[in-house]
Amino acid sequence: AIRMTQSPSSLSASTGDRVTITCRASQGISSYLAWYQQKPGKAPKLLIYAASTLQSGVPSRFSGSGSGTDFSLTISCLQSEDFATYYCQQYYSYPRTFGQGTKLAIK
Amino acid sequence: EVQLVESGGGLVKPGGSLRLSCAASGFTFSSFTMNWVRQAPGKGLEWVSSISSSSSYIYYADSVKGRFTISRDNAKNSLYLQMNSLGAEDTAVYYCARDRTTVDSPFDYWGQGTLVTVSS
Lengths: 107, 120
What we know:
The structure holds two protein chains of two kinds. Chain A is 0% helix and 50% strand. Chain A is mostly beta strands. The relative contact order of chain A is 0.34. In chain B, 0% of the residues lie in helices and 51% in strands.
């Protein structure tokens, strides 16, 4: 199975900050990488797929980059509604695997 | 509007069984691969199983292989997860989720989840 490792596991930031979360795959996955946002008690929401393509309706302050084994999610100007937990996921092969999550909290 | 609504969760004793259902609407269910993903309390997301549109391809996580069975009924727009030999480690919210497109795709729509608690 492909292991997905996110860093950091948690992060504190302020509204207006720019933050970056990284995700590393244990083997190459081309661009078969998605990012999800999850708020407490809610289902995950797809933000980005194909490493850098914004899902419809997602604000442009979210961006993704990378290919192969190293990926990143950047939020350019944090808004209050962005404080949540973020997960990366590979869909290059089965079993589908998620990163352990990055909890983004208000500083 | 795409909707996925899970049901069938609840409290079950160790070693017991449970069948989850996911009712789909708002899209052509028979065209999409469907998935189950779970999340233990306070933990991250864990993919459980996937089934292709015509049920030709089925995949399981090692943690549930041999105990869980995924199935679908395209005539009823429904996805199922039969869970047997349940243990405490299976306690989680179970989500059904749709593949975004027809080939190797992330999950673009998720249900609200149904809680399964395995406890004596």
